[in-house]
Design goal:
alpha/beta; TIM Barrel; eight-stranded parallel sheet; 39% helix; globular
Length: 425
């Protein structure tokens, strides 16, 4: 039984949540739609799955893993071939500006498909590629050397010879960004259930409306796991590490949810407790990665540029700014609610939506005494809510420039980009 005072406070928060959920209902619906694209927009040739049959372990076992007291592993015989090769990763400098496209790890595993994307970078203004390191499955896309990560068992050889692949990209002058999904991780959450978000009613694992399981933002063990993945990825050659899904869940039954590690912080500050928990993670990540040489970036909801609150997911622009080299708001016009800035259909106002959002971001960065050039938005190159062809993609890029910014990244979950919208080299 929870303490009476906590129960009273939680009821007050739930009343507040109902108001906030109404306020952000459109955002939630659009976010759910985006999840649908991410899950079902990939080419059918690539399998999409979530791990089901997992051996559950206790917190004690994970603590042993984290501390390095690993059972049944001979550290002296792990990946001897890698040790013999003595691979030393090389990195290239961040381009100014960055002009990137996104590549799933499934596409990266298929040379015939990935070569088409590399050709785009060879022939056009694109100079960077974002590749999934850990995606929506919770699986790491390449084999790892870190015995802690090996023990967790999330790594698979989805992208064979990742080191050589990245080197080949570097040889072409292509900057390589690795994308890591953080708190949406069904593999880790099922295997180590003590770190998962729970239902308040019965203590079982909470799922959103799509059945997705989330990790508690406040768990330091999850932070350490994320840091270990980031360091491993930098060690194989990724130039920059991009962190996505750094937020609390938003589209499930928010009246029957309990955060084992974040609950007190949220109860103590119902308005910004979630944002404080996220900021604690940002601060820790920055500290642990300091000195590695890795460039760090983070993906945030597009409306963080225009809203002063945390959108009920813990994201505040100014809370991220001190801890990342780049911040990437997802200013996809299709993801803004009807009525945003007076527009009934934001899909028909692609230039205006992006310009308005980024101008707000620039002003907020100046107020925070930070460089506006830290803002590097994700732009929409997929059909959702409307047709996004040459004119729509180019209009978004122009809006970036007209806001005073220079860098941008194109997102299409199916990795089929509008080549004609890009300038030739």
């Amino acid at each position: 039984m929870w303490k009476t005072e906590q129960t009273v406070m939680r009821q007050k928060i739930k009343k507040n949540n109902k108001w906030r959920e109404g306020k952000f209902l459109a955002v939630g619906i659009l976010t759910a739609g985006f999840f649908s694209i991410a899950y079902f927009g990939l080419p059918s040739m690539f399998p999409i799955y979530i791990e089901k049959d997992l051996n559950l372990v206790s917190t004690i076992e994970y603590t042993n893993i984290k501390s390095g007291d690993i059972k049944n592993i001979d550290n002296n015989n792990i990946n001897l071939k890698e040790k013999e090769n003595k691979f030393i990763a090389t990195h290239i400098k961040t381009p100014n500006p960055v002009k990137a496209i996104y590549m799933t790890s499934w596409v990266a595993s298929a040379p015939s498909f990935r070569d088409k994307l590399i050709k785009i970078a060879d022939e056009t203004e694109i100079n960077s590629i974002v590749i999934d390191i850990k995606d929506y499955t919770g699986k790491i896309a390449f084999e790892v050397n870190d015995p802690i990560l090996q023990k967790v068992g999330a790594a698979e050889n989805r992208i064979p010879n990742i080191r050589q692949f990245i080197k080949n990209l570097h040889d072409k002058g292509i900057y390589v960004i690795g994308r890591i999904l953080v708190f949406q991780d069904p593999y880790f959450a099922l295997k180590y259930q003590e770190f998962a978000v729970k239902r308040e009613s019965d203590g079982e694992i909470w799922k959103d409306y799509k059945g997705i399981i989330w990790l508690d933002v406040g768990s330091k063990d999850v932070w350490d796991y994320t840091v270990a993945i980031a360091k491993e990825a930098y060690g194989v050659g990724f130039d920059e590490l991009n962190f996505d899904y750094v937020r609390f869940p938003s589209d499930g039954d928010m009246n029957d949810i309990y955060y084992p590690y974040s609950e007190k912080k949220i109860l103590d500050d119902p308005d910004y407790g979630k944002a404080e928990a996220i900021r604690d993670f940002f601060k820790y990540l920055n500290k642990e990665m300091n000195g590695t040489g890795a460039v760090l970036s983070v993906d945030l909801f597009g409306m963080v540029t225009t809203n002063p609150d945390d959108l009920n997911v813990g994201q505040v622009l100014e809370y991220a700014e001190p801890y990342f080299d780049y911040i990437s708001p997802m200013v996809y016009p299709s993801h803004y609610p009807s009525g945003f800035n007076g527009w009934s259909n934001t899909n028909k106002e692609v230039y205006g939506v992006v310009l308005y959002s980024l101008e707000k971001a620039v002003k907020r960065m100046f107020v925070a005494s930070a460089s506006p050039q830290k803002i590097r938005p994700w732009l929409q190159d997929f059909d959702y809510g409307g047709n996004y062809g040459i004119a729509e993609v180019r209009a978004q890029i122009q809006a970036v420039y007209d806001s005073g910014l220079t860098s941008w990244m194109l997102w299409d979950p199916s990795n089929i980009y509008t080549r004609e919208a890009l300038l030739n080299k």
